[in-house]
Amino acid sequence: MNTPLHVKLQKIMYRLVVDNFVAIFAVAAAAAALQRTSPEAALAVARAIRPAHWLLALLAAAAAAKLRRMGRPKDVYLVEYGCFRPKPWFRAPFATCLEHANLMPYLIDDESVSFAIRLLERSGLGEETCVPEAYHYMPPNRSLEASRDETELVIFSAVDDVFARTTVKPEEIDVLIVNCSIFTPTPVLADMVVNRYKLRADVQNVNLSGMGCSAGLVSVGLAKNLLQVAPPGTHVLIVSTEILSSQYYVGTERAMLLPNCLFRMGAAAMILSNSSERARFKLTRVVRTVTAARDADYRCVFQEEDDKGNTGIRLSKDLATTAGHALKSNIAAFGPLVLPASEQLLVALSFLKRKLLSGGAKVRLYRPDFRTAFEHICIHAGGRAVIDEVQHGLGLSDEDVEASRMTLHRFGNTSSSSVLYELAYIEAKGTMKKGDRVWMISFGAGFDCNSVAWECIKPAADADGPWVDCIHRYPVQLPEISKDISNS
């Protein structure tokens, strides 16, 4: 339903007045003061002040500004990012998935196969999503060697891509953070990157595991904390991935079959720095919310064995609802940091109205419009139900969640790297402009919800990236479904 023109104008005027209240008040006060003071009197006062006093005032102001800058945490920047782009021979179209499942009757029964196919058809995934080579064997190759092969392929491709896009060299990396939830070999993945790129002996390396799809933005928060106390010019390399080869579930528990159907191979790498030189985005806010104190949230994404001893990840049927609740808690902390005063005032007024009318009719709290704070929103492409839940909860349009839905369709759920594929989609479409603000939202085991805000300094010079060979076909029309199946 289109909003009437006069209502739109009223909203624009309201936001202009409230968001710029301080400036408007200052101008009005200055105008009033000048109106009461004649120009001759103001000039006489200025002449009465000695030049030495003017100099002292300027020095004091400069010193105060310097102290203020020294007391502020260092700004953090995203220099560049890169994503793994799978080759066509890794594709897993639905027909292939069905054929492979039917050729493994001793692992999965007919009812489970039918459930998995129905889930795929409703999932929002397209026919071009890719799985590792190990999944193309029957039965899938879940060996340590297969997992290492997948690791080297996706991680090294992503890191090669990010180094190719910037002038930062491997020897300039001071900190390395690698996150992967399930596969954690010895030596760890961080050491694998150090060995491949011959990073310096004094590089600080951290390997995060078990944090699910939220780990990529958790890594950004960790990098921010390190960079704000590091010497100027420090560089952090973050690598986010999920290695699937060792995770294939071979049982019949439906809640544990979901990851087989939804997760796809992917990886992303980003270089962060506390120097604005060569930077493309500025990090403005990081807010993390952990709801693991609630037992239902803690077990929402849970690795365990089924009754036959098969290990897998169990995804709760209430996962989308849990994500919605976690997002509400996250927004309560994130919103006041990013929303303009006009939106915060409306939230405060609706809250006050509810308190005052607590004995009367139920008052619905105002839902803030985050599109007043961000031009682009990247919701973790965990599944169609998760994106639907966030879209409904935030009152977003289909255009607002296009990057998330198209990333899910083209690449599937690539876990912690998905938000970087979404950022690449926005840039490949040419809609990212200097000064645009980006909100990344991720969910993960724990249960975690993370929000990260960026401001664009310099858009991408070209669309070369994971979407380079298919962006002209997107967005695509997704099939309508009457009811989704909860997924991660």
Automatic annotation (TrEMBL):
Top EC category: transferase
E.C. designation(s): 2.3.1.-
Pathway connected to this protein: Lipid metabolism; fatty acid biosynthesis
GO biological process, one term: fatty acid biosynthetic process
Keyword Zinc-finger in annotation: no
A GO cellular-component term linked to this record: membrane
Coiled-coil ranges from the UniProt annotation: none
FAE domain span: 70-356
Cross-referenced InterPro entries: 3-ktacl-CoA_syn, ACP_syn_III_C, FAE1_typ3_polyketide_synth, Thiolase-like
Keyword line: Acyltransferase, Membrane, Transferase, Transmembrane, Transmembrane helix
TM stretches of this protein: 12-35
Gene Ontology MF annotations: acyltransferase activity, transferring groups other than amino-acyl groups
Gene3D superfamilies: 3.40.47.10
Domain Beta-ketoacyl-[acyl-carrier-protein] synthase III C-terminal: 375-455
Pfam families: ACP_syn_III_C, FAE1_CUT1_RppA
Entry similarity comment: Belongs to the thiolase-like superfamily. Chalcone/stilbene synthases family.
Protein name (record): 3-ketoacyl-CoA synthase
